[in-house]
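All the exercises in this workshop are built on plain-text protein records. An example says more than a description, so a record of this kind follows:
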Amino acid sequence: MSKKVATIGGDGVGPELVKCMLDVVDATSVNIEFIQIEAGALWWKKHGGTSLIPDESWDVLDSADACFKSPTTTPGGIGSPKSVAVSIRQQFNLYSNVRPIKTFPNTNPPLGDVDFVCVREGTEGLYAGKEMQLNDNMHIALRLITRDACNRVARYAFEEADRRCWKTVVAIHKSNILKQTCGAFLEEVNNVSVEYPEIEVWEYHIDNIAQQLIKNPQIFNQSILLSTNLFMDVISEECSGLVGSIGLIYSSNIGDNYAMFEPAHGSAPKYAGMDKVNPVATILAGALMLEYLGEKKASENIFTAVDQVIAEGSVLTYDLGGSAKSSEMTREIIKNIK
């Protein structure tokens, strides 16, 4: 029986990148059914409403084994809906957003080779969207932090370190200022750490680690960087720069019974239809999804093929110093799949 994946083509460059991913996955001959669904700003502009995801798409999401989300645009301004990613994370309690940060071969990273994983709490914090206007002059946003969510994401971070045989979890916070919210987060990290005595906890204030990641990023190699929603959103973006291109960064959103996979970059509407954007982040998000669905060998084959194409350096997109189109780099990856 085939697994089913709800697939969101998204906005901007999203549809063309999803095609790249689907072509690569098809080359592995796995038995997975991809069901295309609508979501994003383009759909919302046509239909309106309070959500970027139509009801019929929610029905497919509910019945699927996983979701793949290509980049979607989130409209700004008062009264506009929350993002597609935040909506799905909250609906399915996908509490661990996981972004591996690892140097690719032959890419000349700006600050040297790095290899660590960013784990971000994905359901609450400032992304809970609890804002209000108190008067004409004053608006407030609530930073929602629960011990349950902190404990869940901390446990995932320690388990991920254990799976990788790594010995450090880096807890990123600002508990000297945010004494209750960050204080609760840090307490739950330390509570979980008792169950993993072989893994050390390093505590870093958010501002300090932002500096250390530029000054000496290698001290965090083979570590799990862990933080609350907005803090890790910002820090993981900084970490992505250490690899040299956001077009190489893929991510997963993991819950107890469901998962969503996506490239880390945005929809880049100015490049839509130009067949120009690096497809690697989308393709590797797909490979990560294959592993989640039990297709470990196919996943490994895609990762290996991508490494080979980047190492050879002859068919690369503009952000990697080449001139290849998205489709050309995708075809080269397919040629390298065993």
Summary: The CA atoms of residues 305 and 336 lie 5 Å apart.
